[in-house]
Known about the structure:
Rossmann fold; 6-stranded mixed β-sheet; 11 helices
Amino acid sequence: MEVPRGRIFGLLGPNGSGKTTTMGMLLGLVKPTSGSFTLFGSNSPHVESLRRLGAIVETPAFYPYLSGRDNLAYFQGIGGRSDAAELDDLLEKVGLADRADSRFRTYSLGMKQRLGLAYALLGDPELLFLDEPTNGMDPAGMAEVRDLIRSLGTGGRTVLLSSHLLHEVEQVCDSVAILSKGRLIAQGNVDDLVRPGGDERVRLRTTDNARAVEVLEGLDWVASVEVDGDSLLVATASDRSPEISTALGQAEIYVTEMAAEETSLEQYFLDITEEERES
C-alpha cells in the first residue's frame, strides 16, 4: 500500500479488516508480525518520523478534570512549546471556542472527537492519521468536520482517514485503499474505482431495445452498448442524452426512461468485499 504525499487518503474495510491496526503499526503502537514500512519515504528512526505527524485513533482520551484548553496546553508543553495563539486558533477551527474552558468530563462524545482533532493538529503536522473522526457527531457537526478535513489536505499535508461512513469518504478523499482480513484488495483514485476507465454511462429504456442497440452502436461517440435486463447501458457522456433521444426518435424508437448511471463508492466497496468473501 502506498499513500501519496499531499493527498487525502481513505482507509476502508469491514470491521476487523485491519484499518486501526494498520494505523497502530505506523504509529508504533502495534508491532507488525512481518513486512515493513517507511514514513515520509525514508528509513529514518521512527521517533523522528513521529515528530512530523498527528493522530487521533479510536476514542480520544484526555484528563477529565482539565478543560479542553488546558488539555491541549499540557500536550503542547510535552512537545516543548507554549503558544496560546495556536490553542485559540485550533479550538476555533474545530468548533470548541465557546467550550474551551469547560472540563473535558462535561463534553459530549462529539465534542471529545473535536478536541481530539485539535490535539492531532498541534504543531502543524505534515501527516495526519484520523480514525473515525466524526464518531458521535450530529449531521451538522459531521458536515463541518468534512469541510475541515478537506481544508487540511492542502499545502502539502497528507491525511490518512479511516471511516466506515463511505459516503463521507467519497466526498472527502482523493484516493482510497480497501482492506479485507488484513490484506489489501483494492487501491486507487476514487473516480477511477467507481468509474473504471473514466467512462460515463447512461442507463435507458426504450420501446424497442433490440433495434435501439443497433442504432446506438452506429454512433461514433458511443463506446459500447450493454443490455442489462430491460435496460440499456450506453457508454457515453451524460450530456449526450438529448442526442441519444434524437437518434433513436429518427428511427421511430422512443425513450421511456433515461438517467446517468452512477456507481457510488459504497456500491463498489460492497461488490469488491463480496467478491473477496466468495473467493
